[in-house]
Structures
1.
Amino acid sequence: MSYQVLARKWRPQCYADVVGQRHVLAVLSNSCTRDRLHHAYLFSGSRGVGKTTLARLFAKGLNCATGITATPCRQCGPCQEIEQGRFVDLLEIDAASRTKVEDTRELLDNIHYAPASGRFKIYLIDEVHMLSRHSFNALLKTLEEPPPHVKFLLATTDPQKLPATLLSRCLQLHLQLLSVEKIEAQLQKIVQAEALEAEPQALRLLARAAQGSLRDALTLTDQALAIGEGRLSVSLVSQLLGTLDTQQAVALVEALHQAEAASLLKLVDQLIAQGRDCEQLLVEMAAVLHQIALQQWLPQPLGEPGTGAVRIRELAQRIAPPDLQLYYQTLLMGRQELPLAPDPRMGVEMTLLRALAFHPKQIERGDPAGPSGSAEASVADPVVDSPLASRISTSDRPKRVAPTERPRSLAPVKNVSVMQERQASEESSLVTHAESEPSETTQLLAIHQQLRGQQRQHRQQRQQSTTMISSPGALPQPPLSKTGPAERAAASPRLAPAVPKVPPDNRAARPSSWKAAAERDEWSAEVARLTLPKRIEQLALNSVCEAISPQEIRLHLRTAQRHLNRPEAPDLLASALSELRGQPVTVTILDSEDVSQRTPLEWRQAIDQEQLSAARQALLADEHLQRLQRDFGAEIDEATIQPL
């Protein structure tokens, strides 16, 4: 006997064999049981979810020799003939190949004849949306009022293309895509029945690649069995599908979190060399980030240890939730832009480099250049072994030039003259910086400043003609000369920029709120030294510590933050404190409304207020700012005041 593919061999022969689609099975079963049969049924849904199979099962129940039933006997002549595909009263029509109106008319000419051997003459029209407009019009009247012995079963993957007049004449049943778990369970059942050797993770990969279609899953399984000589392994299935297994995706995420560009791009090189699909690489990494996010918010086992569950749990404790969302968003954007890349590999590499560019470690360093560069040499060599790095020579890499610092005003000034003084100050700083640049740069800056001077002259003439000069008391402006901007800036007296002066020793001596809190409060200092997950760190910051003994502490958590107290919180805190103190520590967490003592977070907030008040007083006491307020009516936007 010739080999029969799995998709045909395991086609359901009764309602109990159908995977999923319980809402559709309920409609069909109740229709047969209660004898409330519609004359036309429309089965819609994606490919491989069971539209034609359910139509055949329904036809079997309508023509079973035992009567109209939801559980056909499968022993009578009609049941066996329908299973074998030779029942004369079940007419299966492929609308994709018979689209003409002549085909539809030929079909309708025979509709009035009684069935040859069955109870009903059933017309199963597959891909009905492929019929032409004239064919639909020819079918409408008969579809609305067919003879009593005729039933129409229509199937389509695109119901939106059907005219509303046809949809209104049918009982529509939409089949849903199957979940990965249901497909995996069916594959496991088939593998056991066929006595095949298969790894569980390989079946998981096949179920995910099927994208909700059981038929596609069985077809892929047949293909994998042909390559693997009857055995399904993770490596073989990954090579067939061009996807990554969980361990490889976790390794990529680990390298991304640790900002190891060399390791990250080396892994990408290896995976692409093995034939992995570039888009699937981003998809699998995003799937791992999804598992990590679930682990952070719903701590529970995610699977067998061999599937990377242990490493995922470790990453869930090390990666902060905001960083995780940033990685996820970057990968999604990279996948969306992948068709626009010069080639898929470049798109993947640029996506991962973008994630590294916005990596939290780079932000903390204040170095946008890369993981190993400084402000002066921003493009170092973090990826020596990668083909990407070999394509970029050191001489071709751009040199960063330190930008000219511009003073940031702390208050809006309502006077034209003061604004002009600021522009002159900016021009002076630009020209001073240009003296150290090559001659070409100096010439470009001079031309740029000359154009700005002409624009400012025209602007001042318009302001004088419309008498829109600022308030009385403003200092008269000296006439503009034809000298360059540097000479004008040096020759004209001007006020100092409106930046308040704070005594250097006070600014240097003022600590940050975190450091100051650690100096004032022992528990704040200890929390600052602990390495904790973000949620547990927030719990510690909102708690007051009561030392029962050197080995036992009691935390009084603010009632408003009781949601931070998860079951695993005491153990995580105890582990971190034991490692810090060098001896075993037990932790008990209680809710408390006692505000007589401050939590570390309250210490920081109080110190922030002290520093903000000191900054405000220093700003108001500044002589230059007082002169701007007195002479030109300047105002201070106190909402923008921040301590240095």
2.
Amino acid sequence: MLRTLLMAASIALSVLTGWSQESSQNVSVIPEPVQLVQKPGTFRLHRETTIVSLDRELLSSARYLSDYVNNYLGCPLKVEQIENEPGSIVLVNKKNGEVPGGYQLIINPDGVEVQGNDAAGVFYGVQTVIQLLPTRAGVLPVLPALEITDYPRFAYRGMHLDVARHFFPTSFVKKYIDYLALHKMNYFHWHLTDDQAWRIEMKCRPELTAKGSMREGEIEGLYPGTYKPLPYGGYYTHEEVKEVIAYANERHITVIPEIDIPGHCMAVLATYPQFSTTPNEPKKAALTWGIFNKFNNVLAPTPEVFDFLCDVFSELCDLFPGQYIHVGGDECAKRWWQESKATQRFMKAHALADEKALQSYFIDYVQRVVNAKGKTLIGWDEILEGGVSKDCIIMNWRKPTYGAKAVQAGHRTVMTCSAWSYFNLKESNTQAEIGPRGPLPLEKVYTYQIVPDGLTAEQASLVWGAQGCLWTEYVPTTWKAEFAVFPRLSALAENVWSPVRKKNWENFVRKMETQFERYDLWGARYSEAYFRTHDVVRKR
């Protein structure tokens, strides 16, 4: 009670005086930097502090820092593109050709300098500055004097969001991207289509959103749940997609769109039943979740289907400026091809040994379309089953052995193994808020071994990085999405950025006390399962 009264009095005083007295500050940076040396003294931010950008390209990073300090701490900072001046926060792009995303942060009592190896490195240095700031408004913004040298362990540091099962507005997608930026993540994997819906406008095929973006109802509760016949839908226009891409680009995040084929296509078949191996049967978007062996969800290998794929992926490549396009390729219910005489004739005519080879035929076709647009294809690890070309990137979601096989076969590979990286799994067995599967505790995410054992140095170099995934079958709201992601996103961020020698679970848990305060400052919903299951009392 006394502590609560003292805090209330302190906050009231800060409101009256503008800022409270400077408080001692522990350094708590997530992900852990490569090297951090603390020094005596501090640098105080105030309303006359100027963020100086020596390069026009860095103005967005300067404004990002200014907006953060203003929005969360109530201290507006000026942004200028001028020469260095005392008392400023100076942003410098050294363009030195060293590790992409690397930076140095130097804080002295007379100023701050962020030196990036490139523009992204400057932005990540800004994120570290943010993590050195107070975690609540009304506290004098003071930065501890120190020097940090830092760079990412992996080039790919990603997070996924499934908007097919449940739709999220662009405002939340941008907020989600901000969460990634605050953790120095650099890829946003946008899962846009599945059996339940098609969520992106295609000007070449407007019927996809006119019909395929809606489903007849919702299943409430855990599968099989209770059916409610309330139409559910939504999709992103080209203008909204461009808005999200521009927003991500300013935060040095590449957006990777996923169109899932040749399975998981019930929303496509609801729009074009003639694309199915059973075209005379009624079709509709799926109302529930899972692999649909019972319902036909695969594309037939016909000229019309391949024309469709050419149209869709060509438009997708034109809309998304990033280098990578995700084709899905997972959980294809091959029984529908086995039972189709027309499909079997196609396989025989094209000398395809089995249905795995047919799946690869689809992937190869889309890859040629994507390559012709100057892009690179990514697919889930099942696409290896029938063989794919080496320039196709593999996303390993099943056991790590599949990721090992991918790099051994010469493929650049992203490790996103479900048992360690799927944040739709509940964090503890006592949680009922997310879904039936799990648990995936915080420590398991943190200790996930991204590079499998037994690889040669050359093979290990093909492990491009790691990714967390949020599938939304049981995540219908934005607050549940945040609850599923936090705090495990912080554990993933440190795992995929920091050198192995710098990782320390006990130190990470200590830093999480401050990180939870940041979540509160951001207004983010989060799980406290770790603290409940370990009987840890959080300081408030």
3.
Amino acid sequence: MTERPVEALTQAEAREELARLAEALTAANVAYHTLDAPRISDAEYDALKVRNLAIEARFPTLKRADSPSEQVGGGLAEGFGKVAHSVRMLSLENAFADTEVREFDDRVRKYLGIPSSIAYTAEPKIDGLSLSLRYEDGVLVMAATRGDGEIGENVTENARTISDIPARLTGAPAVLEVRGEVHMAHSDFAALNDRQTATGERPFANPRNAAAGSLRQLDPAITARRPLRFFAYAWGAVSEPLATTQLDAIARLSVLGFRTNPLTVLCDGPDQMLAHYRAIEAQRATLGYDIDGVVYKVNALDLQARLGLRSTTPRWALAHKFPAELAWTRLEAIDIQVGRTGALSPVARLTPVTVGGVVVSNATLHNEDYIAGRDAKGLPIRGGKDIRVGDWVQVYRAGDVIPKIADVDLVRRPDGAQPFRFPEICPQCHSPALREEGDAVRRCSGGLICPAQAMERLKHFVSRGAFDIEGLGAKQIELFYNDPILPVKMPADIFTLAARDASNPLQKLKNRDGFGDRSVSNLFAAIEARRQIRLDRLIFALGIRHVGEVASGLLARHYGTWATFEAGVTNATPGSAEWDDLTAIDGVGTVLATSLVEAFQNPAERAAIDALVAHLTVEPVANRGPVDSPLAGKTVVFTGTLERMTRAEAKARAEALGAKVAGSVSAKTDLLVAGPGAGSKAKEAARLGVMTIDEDAWLALVGVA
């Protein structure tokens, strides 16, 4: 497992860790949102997501298709009808440190090109269950849980039993979707658990679980007996604006009859935001309901509209979470795991300890420098204290897929404890484990002959963001990889499983332990269904170092078809037209391009890719954007200084209209937008005859007054 401080991660380590995070957070989402039975605390869940987002922010080209940042909530519980949200219910970007709040403000102002301070609202983040209420002509017609953000559960009849939710509104827009949080007061929760115990029923673990379980009862009469409350704090679809600011819109919801949080205030910049955070944190224990942080939102709704959305989070909001917990325990052993790209990652095996209600037995040790007490630049961390087997270590649960070690108690260090010697030989295949200059990770040089790398690549291949073959997960990959009869050593082997099983009448898969007629039939059908795969998912599934989900999407939209992509990458050598075309893709740098080209020019890698593609029908990927947009399918390059729109906003607007944004001018460039200070790109565009326009013409083209 590749675990390091985010600022010290290499791209290979980041990619490995993102895979682990995706698996851990998907399981946590299902447990939390679908089963109402979380396996980890909210603080740890949020910490994992923060870690994932931090890595994606630093390595945007590595973002996975199954990334937690592409997921909102979890799956749907059985027994409820499905509701498609007309406006997606998004999650929020999280922060734990004051510096992250200031960075959020800096990002917002930089994106908008506003040097002065911006007003934000700050409100308690309620720890409950998100709910969307749809009113038409003032009448409640639908209530739905968040679900996965796109599709929720229809809990209308249950919602009608909550006293804080009005059945009718006076003076509301014709269509109004009110979003908020269903929760339970501490006193009501205690009384409910007393009743549960008295009747011999199992008590609830915490108010959030009680609220979620109560709202999702198939019998509304049970929900009606539960003391649920509702805070309104947002909206979805509206037929007319509620107000021009966030604060005024919340006030309007209050006037309409919704309970809103009285601790919501207006703040002028980060200093006031942080001051209100401290004030709310000080009141946390006396509020009478659970909160786990403070939410900041840009107050002006027109600025919110300009900032827009990422895949699952708005750019204009941030959840500042309260700190996670610490605990001391003994380090029993240090294990070395080998990842898909050969990275050797140390993992601490701990004497189990409870941290914030969760039993922890593993922790990340990141890399050999971290164990030795230094950072990527060789500077001391933890005061220069190294980590040794037998040490008493402080475990911190905010920020990693598994907790990390924050400190070492040297006073309790056992006599004879030896500095840990990081292996220079791969523990799996015994190939040399090399550490390249400038890289903090040591990597197995065995490549495909290393069973750990081969197996991890296969696990990545069948992961949600890649081929997502139902019934063929990590455990099944391990089984088939070591199977003497139906081995799966490379991706192409997956698509010959059914044929190989059919040709072996004596030891059919359906007759083995853990399988049966139905499960085998379902597995083979799932594999067959994946013979047709979209280009971006195929590129991502190949598991090429540095090529994450975002980069795969960029590549797929640029090349369009597998044939074009394959030819372009195969022929891309530095200095060639194909190389220039590849590296001109905005978001594809030299490191990524080199890794991609090397994979396609490596005989063993190429043979595996060709063998796989022979079994597939690869669907082309069209560039996103409206068909009637004047920019759809066009390649746009920006240069110079934009004065009325930041570069980030201009890029986002171009991509939303279906354009490809490139980083350099080439013969394939359709349009150059040149602001003051345009230099070599403008000259190259003139030489190539590329249309060049100024910022005013660009704004007119994209419909900005």
